[in-house]
Amino acid sequence: MQATIYKITPEALWRVAEAQGRFTGAPVDLDDGFIHFSTRDQAIETARRHFAGQDDLLLVAVDAGALGEKLVFEPSRGGALFPHLYADMPLSAVKWVKPLPLGPDGAHVFPDMDA
After folding, report:
1. Cβ-contact 58, 45 below 8 angstroms
2. pTM here?
3. Contact assessment for residue 7 and residue 62, using Cβ atoms and an 8 Å cutoff
4. Least C-beta-crowded within 10 Å: which of 2, 52, 94, 111?
5. How large is the average pLDDT for residues 93-98?
């Protein structure tokens, strides 16, 4: 299993999660019945496909092992396995939160994901 998985989320939504002490998901997560995550290798494509042109985003690094059996890797686009969490995410599982700004070319500028 991936040691770290990633969630891209609007900053305002994340601030609500911090106030509540847990992340319950973005509207798309609530509609689908699980919280969508990406692996390191999937995060850039996820940003391009689902968050194009969106500013005020955060990249949240999450300890996959801390999420337990409610975290399931399921096939999605092209058969790739994506991490899906069938529960609220406790903030205790979060390793770090970093800004995900737009660069001059309109693509998101990813932070150092190893730090």
Report:
1. no
2. 0.94
3. yes
4. 52
5. 97
